[in-house]
Amino acid sequence: xxVLKRQTVYVIIAVLVIAVGLGIGLSRRxxxxxxxxxxxxxxxxxxxxxxxxxxxxxVLALEQANEQDVLDGYKIKLIxxxxxxxxxxxxxxxxxxxxxxxxxxxxxxxxxxxxxxxxNVAQEMQVPMLTPTATAPDVTKVGDYIFRACFMDDFQxxxxxxxxxxxxxxxxxxxxxxxxxxxSTALASFFRQRFEELGGQIVAEEKYLSKDTEFRPxxxxxxxxxADMIYIPGYYEEQGxxxxxxxxxxxxVPLTGGDGWDSAKxxxxxxxxxxxxxxxxxxxxxxxxxxxxxxxVKAYEARxxxxxxxxxxxxxxxxxxxxxxxxxxxxxxxxxxxxxLAATENLKILRANITMGADRNPIKDGIIVELKxxxxxxRDVIQP
Length: 384
Prior knowledge:
384 residues, alpha/beta, Rossmann fold, 7-stranded mixed β-sheet, 5-stranded parallel β-sheet, 43% helix
C-alpha cells in the first residue's frame, strides 16, 4: 500500500472513531427508537455449534427485553455477522459492524482466539464488546472496552484440579492437549500448576491439533502411563472422538475437562454409552433443578426446539447484561454503554449473581457437570 493510500485510510479511521465517540447510533435525547447492536458469531465453521447456541441465547434475551419494553419504547435491533469460525473473518466482521452498520456495542465472538481478534478492532474504535463465552484471560486485557460474561480459564482449571484431587481421588493425571489452541493450552497450564501444588503428579502429556480425528497413538501412551484420570481441555468435536476411542480401547478412568465439552453434538460424536464417568467445569446445566434455570430452558426450547447448552445460557446472560447496561446508561452511545457495563453489580440472571470486576471480568460461580450415559447433572458448585 502506498503512502498516500495509507494516509487516506488513517484519516477515514480517525473520522470513524470520532463519529462513534460522538454517538453515531443514537442517544436517549435523539428522535430514534432503534438501538443497533452487533452480533459477531461463529455461525458456520469448526465451532458453529457454539456460535449458534450463543447467538440463540442472545436472541432470546433481546426478544424478551423488547417484548417487556424494558427500555421504555426503545427497541434493540441485533445486526448479525457470521465470522465463519475464522480469525481473519472475525476481524472483517467486527470492522463491518462498527464502520458500516453503525452499531453502538458488540456481542460475541464465542471462542477466545476470535474474541481477541474482534477485541482489537472494538478497542481501537472505542465500541464496547461483550463476549458471552471466551474464557482466555488475554481477551479482556486488550483494553477497557472489552468485557466478558463467563468465568475465566484459571478459575475453571483450578476448580477441576481441586475436584480431581479431592473428590475423584486422582493422584496421577494425564493430559491430552490441543497444542495449537490458546484455550486448551491455558487450561492445561493452570490445571497442571494447581494439581501439582496439591500433591498430584502429571504422568503424561500428549498433544493433538484441531480437526484431528485419530487419537489412539496418544491414548496408547496415556494408558501405559498408569494415569488414574485424564484431563482433556478442548472442544467437543475432538473430545467426543477422544472419549469414544478411549472407551473402545478399554480406558475407563475418569475423563475431565472444561466448558468446551458442552455441546448437544457430543453424544452424536461419542455415543451415549461412552459418556460415563466424565466431569467438566461449566457455567450451567440443563439438568439444574433451579426454577429460574428451568424457566429459561422451557423458553429456549419453545423458541428453538431443543434443550439449551451452556453457550446458549451464556449468550442469554450476555444479552441481559447488555440490556441492563442499556437501561442504566446515560445515553445510548458507546462510551456511556461501556461505563454502564463496567458498573454492573449484583445482577441476577439464571443461577448467577453477576458483578463486573475492575478487570471487566464477572464475579460469579460455576458448576461441575457429570455425564451419565451422556446425560448431564450438576455434581458440584464452584464458588468464586
